[in-house]
Amino acid sequence: MLIRINKFLSSEQISIQINEKFEIDDEDFLSKTHLHKDIVFSGVIFKVDDNVILNGSIQYTFEDECARCLITFDKTVTTSFEAVLMRQLEENEESDEIKLKITDGCVDLEETIKQMIYLSMPMKSLCKKDCKGICPNCGVNLNNEECKCNNDLTDPRFDKLKDLLKD
Ligand SMILES: [Zn+2]
Ligand SMILES: [Zn+2]
Predict the structure, then answer these.
(1) Which residue among 1, 57, 75, 109 is the one 20 to 30 A from 145 at the CA level?
(2) Nearest-ligand number for the alpha carbon of 136
(3) Are 66 and 137 part of one and the same domain?
(4) Are residues 28 and 100 in the same domain?
């Protein structure tokens, strides 16, 4: 995931736009995250005073599991980040900024992109907003079919009846 910026750095240009499709080939990372290996990267690199800044955005898709009905589905997420690109990294400097080293006119985005994907993955998702989930009694996926269980135990008429039977 190298981005070549040597031409840009030696030019008079203030900024460049980058749109790239990358493939992540880290099998371990892919299986851990259920990520589809193709990701889309787009960003702008611009010069500010003596600094070079990258504003990037990543779009990725992964196989997610619905927290209610447990089916798997593809979810696409977009996340963005900012990084400072430097020829020389200063060591031991405390800062939350992402710093990337420019080596031979290139910047390697692989680690940053993997980190951003990891951080932005939603913990809990639903296959759709009004997912009905599965029946706690018979295990049927209530989005696809209705079951015969009577899960509606909160009918007020039954409460009255229960009260009457108590006496
Ligand atoms: Zn669901
Ligand atoms: Zn049921």
Answers:
(1) 75
(2) 2
(3) no
(4) yes
Are residue 120 and residue 162 in the same domain, yes or no? Answer: no
Expressed in angstroms and rounded, the spacing between residue 26 Cα and the centre of ligand 1 is 29
Å from CA of 143 to ligand 1 middle? 8
Provide the residue type at 105 as one letter: G
Do 51 and 17 have their domain in common?
Answer: yes
Domain that holds residue 86: 2-129
Do 64 and 125 touch, CB atoms closer than 8 A? yes
Query: Tokens 């031991």 sit at which residue?
Result: 92
pLDDT digits (tens, 9 = 90+) for 81-130: 999 999 887 776 677 889 999 999 999 999 999 999 999 999 899 999 99
Q: Give the tens place of pLDDT for each residue, 10-33.
A: 999 999 999 999 999 999 999 999
3-state secondary structure of 111: helix
* Cα–chain center distance at 160: 49
